[in-house]
Known about the structure:
With 302 residues, this protein is mainly alpha-helical. The chain has helices at 2-16, 19-33, 47-59, 63-82, 109-122, 126-136, 140-144, 177-185, 208-226, 239-251, 256-262, 272-277, 283-301; strands at 151-152, 157-160, 171-174.
Amino acid sequence: MHNVSEEFLKRHVRTKTRASSARETERILNVDVLPAWKGRRVQSITRRDVIALLDSVVDRGAPILANRVLAVVRRMFSWCVERGILEASPAAGVKAPSVERSRDRVLSDEELRVVLAAFDDIGWPFGPLFKVLLLTAQRRDEVGEMRWSEVDLGRRIWTIPRERAKNDQAHEVPLSEPVVAILKELPRIEGRAGFVFTTTGTTPLGGYSRAKSRLDGFVLARLRSENLDAEPLPRWTLHDLRRTAATNMARLGVSQIVVEKVINHISGSLSGVAGIYNRHSFADEKRAALVAWAKWVEELSQ
């Protein structure tokens, strides 16, 4: 089983998926799959084994992760069928164990005001990263793996290459003045990869869960400095910053089409035939939207 998974990672995952997706696939295989099937030949794995694996992940309190595990093993077994290693996939027809619903958490103005202050409290390196995450409305890994070679501070443009963009399309992100100011103040740590947010120069930042926990601590401290009986904020994630930005841009009068362009979505107003024929870049509209959003955030934090 181990040898097949290594071949799958080498010949498919690392060559045909984004780096962040490849890392997550490898992590799931090494942590959740291979230990459960240690010493087994891939040909010995049955549908019942797949279901038992998923049940074990659900039973330890990780139902959404179980869906991700199924996606990984399904893809691996399909690859095995394509390569002639298996005649049929033992994951074929296995249903996802958990129902996933689209999250809709948007931070309120008051919550966002406190979170913004906590960004300053937590400091470098995560404070600036989280603030850029909010101000650009881009995905966590896209911001976290930003490279100086992608950034043109003179033109105030950050170009996310297609190999790093989730929808496989290069994406130009106009940079507002506050974002440019943050980037100019960052320490330049030399390294071949040229990461913007790094402490080593060779790898992007890691440890987001720990950083988020620290941030939550600063948020609670801020709240309690204003009200001794204050409770922690209702559960929120870093991805909620992106949704909060998109929601508030719409609140500021930005059209849905432009919001989708800012966040690099192609599943809404400009999907399908409309997307094929409408090639307008919306560069000016995106810049105006992000400038308005940055101004609103700046006023909120004062």
